[in-house]
Amino acid sequence: MNGYELRQKDDGSIEIVEIVPSVIATFADRAHAERYFDFLTGPKDPVPPRPTALPAPVETAPAARTAKATQTFSDPTGEEWEKAFTYLMAGEDMKAVAARMSVDMYKLRGKYAAWRRRQNERAAAEAPTGNPAALETSDCRMCGRTFRDTAESDGLCARCFHG
Predict the structure, then answer these.
(1) pLDDT tens-digit profile of 130-141?
(2) How buried is residue 70: exposed, middle or buried, by Cβ count under 10 Å (0-12/13-18/19+)?
(3) Considering the entire predicted model, what is its pTM?
(4) Which helix (H) or strand (E) element contains residue 114?
């Protein structure tokens, strides 16, 4: 099933080219093979199907568009922010709280995140340290490294204890 083709080169000379087939894939399923063959040879129909007409976009009233774009937000006081944060801590929806306060939801989200971060830092600073004896450090009797001594350590750091 060899084929031949005439091919003209850029310099004007003509070549005769022998086309020799070679197997590039083997398929167990004919449908899969045809799909792959169509991919290699290109579409059978050179004209793409006509797209169906899309419905015309619904035109919104200009006033409705500009009202959303020019929405003004209030500037709450510190007390109002704290009240909003307590609502959020209670599990209320952030968009609903922002709408009620007439502030931008993203501004509320940023302020709430900063407030939570400060709350967590304060709680960590004020937290009791626990058992003071557990926080005492000792020097390893083999290597001299400083480590947190436990009842099982027998005066050795973790490296020396585990060998």
Answers:
(1) 555 546 788 988
(2) exposed
(3) 0.39
(4) helix 105-126
